[in-house]
Request: fold
Amino acid sequence: MNSGILVINCGSSSLKFALIDTVSKQEVLSGLAEKLGMADSRITFKHGPTPRRSYRQPGEKDTAALAGGTHAAAMDAIIERLREEGLLDSVKAVGHRVVHGGEVFKATAMITDAVLAQIEKCSKLAPLHNPANLLGIRTAMQQFGDLPQVAVFDTSFHQTMPEHAYLYALPMSLYRDHGVRRYGFHGTSYRYITSKAAELLGKPLEETAFVCAHLGNGASATAIKGGVSVDTTMGLTPLEGSVMGTRSGDIDPGIIGYLASELNLDIAGVMDILNKKSGLLGVSELSSDCRELQEAAAAGNHAATLALDIFSYRLAKHIAALTVGLGRLDALLLTGGIGENSAYVRANVINRLGFLGLTLDEAANQECTRGKTGRITVEGSVPALVISTDEEMMIAMDTAKLAGLID
Ligand code: AMP
Reply:
């Protein structure tokens, strides 16, 4: 292999990576360093379908404690494993996921000092994410100083939204002077699934009108016309829109002041409730995890059923609302851990959308799990497609293109 791209997705306490062969389009080696900064930090490696060493099994996984427990230690361990596997020299460029690119980054960018400074400026819009992304970039630059480094932004895909979709009805000075507008997220995933869906439906992407929902621990939905985002549910931050694992999604903004005064909390205290204690977790008082809630609901737990119902009902409302930006609906696309696996939530959403021409195929819905791509609506219905997303592949292909490795 001579065309590897190392993809880095760096969080504050985790570092996810994947080495992708841009010719075979296969993940050769991937992994996750977790609990960085803690005493029990560890790193897991997973080998792809065709490991380089004969003593490795396809898909083999191993986990080890990570001495040092820092981001730099994680990067050292990754480099060491790449060397052991004879893969280090195949790395030709490094692609980084960056959450917030503000209005500056309308596309993927080659990282330069000026780009780093701009990403830093965007940190105030994503204080939990961008500093961690920057840490990943700086660590990789130290280790792979000679290779091109590329930033792929979650927000850039949504830069095509029209003004009437991205502006809040707030004083315009807040937009002009402080960048307060809707940015949207999950853009890399949306780009990937829309091009897959166009392929599956045998239509040029330019002629498609999709509502797409990326449903994982974070959840959003987007209207995509002709391959470009025209509206999305997330806003200035990834808190707006759909109900999520621990995030509230849309609420009456009046609740913020009310809670501050009732509970004697400062803004950080209220935001902590909205970001970390709400959503599926807040309603169920049990778990933020969809699978666990499904099990509890099956065992008769009312709060778990209610949490999943609120999640599904709100999402169905958002999907219907997003069709306004499209004028028609060619297909509904579902992805993310919940979208790809939860037949329960998919049924709960699609069964509310009959008026948009969607009719669930129960059997197909039950069958479509664990990375299977397929149609879960009956013949004659507007199609609902489950598509397994691959943000790492998208980042790798973007990086390879910008680094001049592929056309
Ligand atoms: P992600 O953030 O994309 O990894 O998605 C995480 C979410 O997907 C969690 O709420 C999981 O419970 C959910 N999930 C993963 N597998 C399943 C499954 N088989 N059934 C239902 N939910 C699932």
Notes: The pocket of adenosine monophosphate is lined by residues 216-217, 245, 289-291, 294, 336-338, 341-342, 369 (CB under 6 Å). The longest strand covers residues 26-34. The domain at 4-153 is CATH 3.30.420.40 (Nucleotidyltransferase; domain 5). Residues 72 and 139 are 6 Å apart (CA to CA).
